[in-house]
TrEMBL record:
Residues 80-308 form the Deoxynucleoside kinase domain. Its cofactor is FAD. Residues 386-408 are annotated as: Disordered. This is NADH dehydrogenase [ubiquinone] 1 alpha subcomplex subunit 10, mitochondrial. It is found in: Mitochondrion matrix. Keywords: Electron transport, FAD, Flavoprotein, Mitochondrion, Respiratory chain, Transit peptide, Transport. Its main location: mitochondrion. One of its GO terms (cellular component) is mitochondrial matrix. It comes from the Eukaryota. Pfam families: dNK. GO terms for biological process: mitochondrial electron transport, NADH to ubiquinone. Signal peptide: none annotated. Belongs to the complex I NDUFA10 subunit family.
Length: 408
């Protein structure tokens, strides 16, 4: 038998790794730690190096000797995460916040990022040719049929995509100096796992395997500077779900008071409590929405430098030397595939994460016959790629697309 989840992992892990270690004793530049909106950025700003094109160029050892990380970073080189229940208005708020702060907005990680390839072909259209255990299964399918055996695989795939996106966010901050606003993140993903498990949609073995993956991966990440939680009562969440009228959501057997109450409990009693030991935390009653400008004022009042060396606050971002910043930048920008390989964990004890070897063989045959899937990105002549004979290497990293989830 072969692991179906590992079949999915291979689509994120590249072929080349960069394992060079950096040794440089140059002291780091002191970083400002007070976020400022674009409106307040008046007067002459210090000149910074141009953003480094980390998606197309590697940041190797020799490059790190002349291209330091901290000169690009300023008071807005921060990672912000917007959290909250379903239908709370997180996406709209996160987009507005990013725009006002001059930051990059990354939409909530979703399976469209996984199933739609670099050439725009939706791999879900191949389901008729796939064995039953290899068919696509995304959030829409889960909302309609949460008891499906593929639910566990879906949840692990979503976790994997969130992990991949979080790496992209860190690479962007360290390579360009621009801050990032995330709509939910990998660190809070277990909130959904617990809600699924409490409702009987995940088995005990699948839940245990999820945490095995989580424990093996999250330790490699820097936690966010700020988490903003948009709070909303369960009753109001139910009303909003019906109001926004997404077909597969409003009639779903998943969206129940029990499911939402479990999410709320894990969010408030576990995740927010834990993350607040490192990150700054702002919580707002978002039942009637609110004004982004007021929250920006609250953010601007936060002193991200108000801690000492014994304080766990911001410890992940409190680096002593320029060498340390460069090492992290190379890890997230150049060695993403090394981090993604942490998902290569056997799943033999979880039947719903396994498929027969014959089915796996059929899966790969069908997958490679799809447009843009025969060769790596940039080498598919039938999809319009040019200069193939002149190319000698793959792109330095596989960055997830900025693709919002479909709402049908």
């Amino acid at each position: 038998m072969a692991s179906l989840f590992r079949v999915g992992v291979c689509r994120f892990v590249g072929k080349n790794g960069n394992n060079l270690l950096l040794k440089n004793d140059n002291p780091t530049t002191h970083l400002l730690r007070t976020i400022t909106s674009k409106t307040m950025m008046k007067g002459d700003r210090p000149k910074k190096p141009e953003p480094y094109p980390y998606n197309t160029k590697k940041y190797g050892f020799l490059k790190s000797l002349i291209d330091r990380t901290t000169p690009r970073m300023d008071e807005n080189s921060k990672l912000l995460v917007v959290e909250g229940p379903i239908a709370a208005g997180k996406s709209k708020f996160a987009q507005e916040l990013a725009k006002e702060m001059g930051m990059l907005y990354l939409p909530e990680a979703n399976l469209d990022m996984y199933y739609i390839n670099d050439y725009g072909f939706d791999l879900r259209t191949l389901d008729n040719e796939m064995p039953e255990g290899c068919k696509s299964f995304d959030v829409m399918d889960f909302m309609r049929n949460p008891q499906n055996m593929l639910t566990a695989r879906m949840q692990l795939e979503i976790y994997e995509i969130k992990f991949s996106q979080y790496i992209d966010a860190l690479a962007h901050i360290l390579s360009t100096g621009q801050g990032v606003v995330l709509d939910r993140c990998v660190l809070s993903d277990y909130v959904f796992t617990e809600a699924m498990y409490s409702s009987g949609y995940l088995s005990k073995r699948a839940r245990r395997k999820y945490y095995e993956y989580r424990d093996n991966t999250v330790r490699e990440l820097l936690r966010p500077h700020l988490v903003i939680y948009l709070d909303m009562p369960v009753k109001k969440v139910m009303e909003n779900v019906q109001k926004r009228g997404i077909s597969w959501e409003k009639n779903s057997p998943v969206i129940t008071p029990k499911y939402l109450e479990c999410m709320e409990k894990v969010y408030k009693q576990e995740y927010l409590k834990t993350i607040s030991t490192h990150s700054e935390l702002l919580v707002y009653d978002w039942s009637e929405q609110g004004e982004v400008e007021i929250i920006i004022e609250d953010i601007e009042r936060i002193d991200f430098d108000n801690y000492d060396y014994q304080d766990p606050k911001m410890k992940d971002w409190d680096l002593a030397r320029e060498e340390d910043w460069n090492v992290l930048r190379r890890l997230y920008a150049d060695q993403k595939e090394k981090l993604m390989s942490l998902f290569n964990i056997p799943c033999y004890e979880v039947p719903e994460l396994m498929i027969e070897a014959e089915d796996a063989d059929r899966y790969y045959q069908v997958l490679q016959s799809a447009p843009g899937m025969k060769y790596d990105k940039g080498y598919n002549v039938d999809q319009g790629d040019q200069g193939v004979l002149l190319k000698s290497s793959n792109p330095p990293r596989n960055t997830l697309p900025l693709r919002e989830r479909r709402q049908l």
